[in-house]
Amino acid sequence: MIWLKVSQVLLASSCLVSSQVHSQTAFEAPTFHHPIRRVAVVGAGPAGLQAAAKLVEHNFTVRLFERAPHPGGNWLYSEETPVRESYPDRPVSQGAEIPAELPAMRFYSDGDDGLTLEDRWAEHWHPRPLWYTLHTNSPKVSTELPDVPYARDTPWVLDAHTIQRHVRSFASHHCLNSNDYCPATLGAPPVTAYSTRVERVEKDEETQSWVLTLRRLQRLRESQRIQAEWWTETFDAVVLATGLYTTPHVPDIDGIVDWSKAKKGGQYSVYHSQRYRHAEGYVGKTVLIVGASVSASEIARDLSPFAHRIIASVRPPTDASGERQRSFARFPNTTEFVPEIASFAPLDEHNKGIHHGKIHLINDSVLEGVDEIILATGFLDTPLYPPNSTERRHLHWTGHYIHDPTLAYTMGRPWTMGRYQSYGFAKVWQGKAQLPLPEETKIEDGRRNGTFWRDMWLGEAICRRYVNWLNDASLKDGGHFVEPPSIETLELLKYYTVVHLLNNTVQLDGLGAFGLSMLADKLRTEISDPWTGLVDEGLDW
Ligand SMILES: Cc1cc2nc3c(=O)[nH]c(=O)nc-3n(C[C@H](O)[C@H](O)[C@H](O)COP(=O)(O)OP(=O)(O)OC[C@H]3O[C@@H](n4cnc5c(N)ncnc54)[C@H](O)[C@@H]3O)c2cc1C
Ligand SMILES: *[C@@H]1O[C@H](CO)[C@@H](O)[C@H](O)[C@H]1NC(C)=O
Ligand SMILES: *[C@@H]1O[C@H](CO)[C@@H](O)[C@H](O)[C@H]1NC(C)=O
Ligand SMILES: *[C@@H]1O[C@H](CO)[C@@H](O)[C@H](O)[C@H]1NC(C)=O
Ligand SMILES: *[C@@H]1O[C@H](CO)[C@@H](O)[C@H](O)[C@H]1NC(C)=O
Ligand SMILES: *[C@@H]1O[C@H](CO)[C@@H](O)[C@H](O)[C@H]1NC(C)=O
Ligand SMILES: *[C@@H]1O[C@H](CO)[C@@H](O)[C@H](O)[C@H]1NC(C)=O
């Protein structure tokens, strides 16, 4: 992105010189009610796994809670799908039923409360939103966790299954996989708790510790039941690493519920992007993709060799952010763009698909002959917040909650920033690093549109802050030093962005048709900036 434009030589040296930035930023030692020993990490995706590994390395007593049965987070592929329609995703803080007396245990059979065992299981862990043939938009150099490098011959553009194995390798390397148990002392509790969802995070004012309410589900195959257990555990500090993509977003368009019931040959005709599977199934079909997200453009690319027509219903961009224009540029050149959908006219019947249905667009045109609709409408960010903290607000750039730094959030790209951030959590809670003064670097809104977020949180500036902060702390109180991304990495990113990402896509000139000519210019400028490849993380998947 242009505001991060910086020459490589400057970049490398500025990332290593500490005094300049340090003098602009004031720090103070956080005071804790009592020493931090027990730490909970919520979420075993790329961010949570790194936090847990780093905290274990620093001798904290760690518990890692993950609602899914295995590590991987977003990259844990599953054919299971969430059960949104019949069992809407409720923010866990409001309404997931917790028994009055804890600990508690219950058994469920098929059909209890009108839920199948499959639905009850899926509602617990929210199968992850991946389509089968997903490939990354970030190259492997910037989508790699420490300690477990990809093999040299791994392609630059990674498929989802390769990343899944990579994240699992990291988990296994640190004894955090679902089948690992490496107790620090004989009989110590395991670090990991999979299939365990954190239902509540609360501070006990008296003991000044965090109380987590937990629910674990187990499938009892022999008796064909599900066992649910609830209990609480107490911690001195908590890392919330639950990611940004917690709930699939289904837009509220007139008639969409009616259409989502339409089937043909037993197959539904309207999918959230996560349900879409194999491109071969779309041979000869007319496919309408709703949204201009990364998923929308990447799925369109996937389907284009197979589908008869690909139509994309997109809304004109409301902001000037780079990633949306990049998604646009990734649509195949055969894509027919249409405006937003106003409504879906009621269907005569639901067992003949949607081919004869009428889709009204906001410009008064009517679209017909669509065989399948893929909702690539992104996700809602519905994370787990302690009471009185309803957004990712009031955070230091280190991820610590300003009003109580025993709580921390993982933020930014875990691949590139997670290593620094995790080390920061460990150092602060060990009393071996200070925190920036709140007024210096407060993040008012964790979403990425704020000026602070844009200028300070992404890419080069935040990297420089981390390297300076951590290395200063290590000089003073001991600990290893960290390094910024190597020049080689940045060169590879630059090459990838210029040569690969924009290869074989619509001409940038074609963007003029969508009122995007200005943005096309911006894109042309941006592709010379390797940091763009390091920092991409939108809410728009
Ligand atoms: C479709 C899609 C494609 C993407 N492609 C790319 C890409 O190409 N390149 C890239 O760099 N990034 C990509 N991303 C971004 C992706 O989010 C990151 O790569 C990465 O997975 C983020 O890691 P994380 O650990 O922060 O969150 P996640 O990977 O989402 O992990 C969060 C974990 O927290 C768990 N959790 C949540 N709530 C609870 C709870 N209450 N109790 C217990 N556990 C809980 C979840 O089950 C999950 O396992 C993509 C995202 C999506 C949705
Ligand atoms: C963790 O404990 C071990 C054993 O006591 C010690 O050798 C090591 O230095 C400690 N690590 C850190 C980072 O404090
Ligand atoms: C679209 O892309 C294909 C494949 O790269 C190319 O052969 C074709 O000429 C392009 N069509 C247009 C109209 O640009
Ligand atoms: C509505 O938009 C479509 C796609 O851009 C276009 O083909 C059609 O002519 C438009 N209809 C009207 C009434 O402007
Ligand atoms: C939440 O806010 C209310 C009112 O501002 C306050 O009385 C209460 O103590 C707060 N609770 C916590 C856990 O901070
Ligand atoms: C940033 O996002 C918030 C919340 O989504 C919104 O209220 C605000 O208007 C946005 N600010 C800008 C500058 O777009
Ligand atoms: C660019 O696209 C062409 C045609 O699809 C392909 O043969 C080539 O390998 C691509 N180049 C890169 C660097 O991906």
Automatic annotation (TrEMBL):
Signal sequence, renumbered to the chain: 1-19
InterPro entries documented for this protein: FAD/NAD-bd_sf, FAD/NAD-binding_dom, FMO-like
Keywords, ordered alphabetically: FAD, Flavoprotein, Oxidoreductase, Signal
Pfam families: Pyr_redox_2 (PF07992)
SUPFAM superfamilies in the cross-refs: FAD/NAD(P)-binding domain
Domain FAD/NAD(P)-binding: 38-309
PANTHER family, sorted: DIMETHYLANILINE MONOOXYGENASE
Protein name: FAD/NAD-P-binding domain-containing protein
Organism of origin: Mycena belliarum
